[in-house]
Amino acid sequence: MRFKTELKNIRTFSKLTAALNSLEKIAWVRLDDDTARFTVIPDTGSQVWASLSMDFMFENYHIQSAEANNTINLELPLQPLQRALKSALNSTSASLRLTKKEGVPVLSMTITTTTDASAPSAAAAHRAASLDDDPFDDDLPPEHLETSLRREREKIITQDIPVRVLHPETVETIMQPKVREPDVHIQLPPLLQLKAISDRFTKLALASGPAASRAGGPKLELSANMHGALRLRIASEAVDISSTWTGLENPQLDPAQIQGPIEEHPSARFREAGPDKWATVRVDGKDWSRVLSVGRLEGRVIACFADDHALILYVYVPQYDDSGADDSVVTFVDTSRIEPAFGP
């Protein structure tokens, strides 16, 4: 079993890891000839299924295993990976290799940085400043010698991330949950704005009394229609407030991606029913806040509502290094919030 690669899109890779780490500390990573999949399944809350082409983050990669398509399954701690990627942000190059150290499998990240050896130290700068203030100095101003010579020093850092290699039988039962066709699909407003309002609503609910804490945390009501509107609401005995966005986009469906005629799709019925027909789900306020941290990926986010059943977010991550390449997709699935919605 072998895996070795150079890293690219390190900043985006780091942001993705940070978003996953906010939900769970361990990820299942599945690598093969074409695709890198990152899956996070916490005990409670939203699941994440990220499917990225191998050349989104890796280049000049070599992967080999005895499984079909050279598949390698790893259990990967996200916090050490996030620290390593943070160290690599300003590197001149970084590579990743699956190896063993003292009998323990690790992903070894080698980071190469360059420092300017000609830059003066703090002490040298202080001495130079003292010389400039010398009253016995000549009246002639100092002249700087401009040269094209630049002395640089290369620094190599190695960070080892412990992993566990998983047998195919261990992961064959891990499958993305199947959810019925959505009733509403809508592009979300800027996530930073949505997160700020969601967090404020959650804090208001917590401050209103202990009932929310006893119920497992404040529940936010999210509603959307097929006429470009999204509504966020928090309701309890002490507080009932909402915020609404309008003019949002309801993306067109791809007929090749759905079963049956497009006019019979649930979203078509919701569109025909008019702007008063809402699909609604309830989400845990704290979990929702962590999910919205995916906004750091700076991609557009499509929310799919299965009324009173499930919420799925599709985050389309652009490839900044290749503007002509297709976006990669990170999928957030929350099927655990199926409590009845608030009344009108």
Automatic annotation (TrEMBL):
Q: Does the keyword Cytoplasm apply?
A: no
**Keyword ATP-binding annotated:** no
Instruction: Please give the residue ranges the record annotates as the region Disordered.
Output: 118-138
**Matching InterPro entries, A to Z?**
HUS1, HUS1/Mec3
List keywords of the entry alphabetically.
Nucleus
The superkingdom of the source organism is: Eukaryota
Q: Where is the composition biased (Low complexity)?
A: 118-128
An example Gene Ontology CC term for this record:
checkpoint clamp complex
Q: Where in the cell is it found?
A: Nucleus
This protein's major location comes to nucleus
GO:BP terms for this protein?
Answer: double-strand break repair via homologous recombination; meiotic DNA integrity checkpoint signaling; mitotic DNA replication checkpoint signaling; mitotic intra-S DNA damage checkpoint signaling; nucleotide-excision repair; telomere maintenance
PANTHER family noted in UniProt? CHECKPOINT PROTEIN, MITOTIC AND DNA DAMAGE CHECKPOINT PROTEIN HUS1
Q: Which family does it belong to?
A: Belongs to the HUS1 family.
Protein name (Swiss-Prot/TrEMBL): Checkpoint protein
